Amino acid sequence: MLYEALSHPAARLLPSANSATLGMLLHAYARAAAPLPAPVAAAARSLLRRPGSMRSMPTPCLVQAVWAMARLQAGDAGVYAAAVREAAGRLPRMGTHDLSLLLWSLSSAGVYDGALMGAAAPLLTQRLQQEPWDEQALCNVAFAYGQTRHYHPPLVAAIAAAAQQHASQLLGSCTATGVLLQALAQLQHRDDALVTCLAQHMVAGVGSSSGSRREAAAGSRRSRGEAAAGSRRSRGEAAAAEAAADALAATWRFMQRHGWRRRSVAAVAWALAHLGHVDHSAMVAACVQWYSHPGSRPGQPSGGGDGSSADPYDQGRPSGGDAEGTW
Question: Which of 46, 95, 190, 324 could be 275's S-S partner, Cβ–Cβ 3.0 to 4.6 Å?
Fold first, then answer.
């Protein structure tokens, strides 16, 4: 109700507003996930398209405005074209946070400018190699280049290398993991070292309690019983089956512990399968099982689970998350 009540005063004030006022207003609507009223959206687009308007905006205000317009699905071709032109002249001076969020915003709005992406790629590659990044900026850039299918091998390799350094933090967010792996798959970039690192962190991240060991080995004990009764499987095959069951149960428990959600689980499974990571079948199997029966144990029917029907990822774009609200 508050944002609806503000719509008419805001629409009247925007034509004469400065960049800071515009940025704060759009940011408020975007963070509240409040629909931008048509009069406010029209006034904001008119102001942003005005010649020289974006040029007068400090970079944080410019990025904030473009992000909000993309988040609220309120921008148009004129707004984004002006943002691309202005960003092109500021690239070397833009901070990593601002640049990553701008690229996410443009790609999220379906805007692709090859010249801008191409100019930003070596700059981002250099920064990835020389300075620490947070997971948000890393995922923003991965999403932007994956979504637009703009493949710059040195940048993608640097993203994968940085992801290994942030493996435990990335895996703590199912969305970040899904975004990163899906971007690599969209770019047809297979990185065995990264996937191995993530798989090992998932297995190691849940410990090895006796209860989980018993669950993990249940299927393999049945297999050994069949072998003792006359099965021709070798001991090596039985050991491999037990190891696979152990990895599956550990991966499953990791997903439960960190509250992984269905859309991100599907993205991870698709990316692994698309890139042919058959040597990490436990991750794929756990993803498929979780997506089919959220919250139940491997091999068990769904028993209520984690309320996945209310998962915002099943309703479209993520509805919340960190300080930026991007994921």
Answer: 190
Alpha-carbon separation of residue 71 from 105, 150, 307, 313, 324 (angstroms): 7, 22, 26, 15, 11
**pTM given for the model:** 0.77
- Residue at 296 is within a domain: no
Total number of domains in the chain: 1
Range of the domain at 133: 1-165
Angle, vertex CA 151, rays to CA 286 and CA 272, nearest 5: 10
Percent of the chain's residues with pLDDT above 70: 71
Task: Tell me the two tokens of residue 114.
Answer: 């090859």
Does 72 fall in a domain? Answer: yes
Rounded CA-CA distance 262/293 in Å is: 10
Instruction: Map tokens 């940025």 to a residue.
Output: 23
* Rounded percentage of the chain residues whose pLDDT exceeds 90: 36
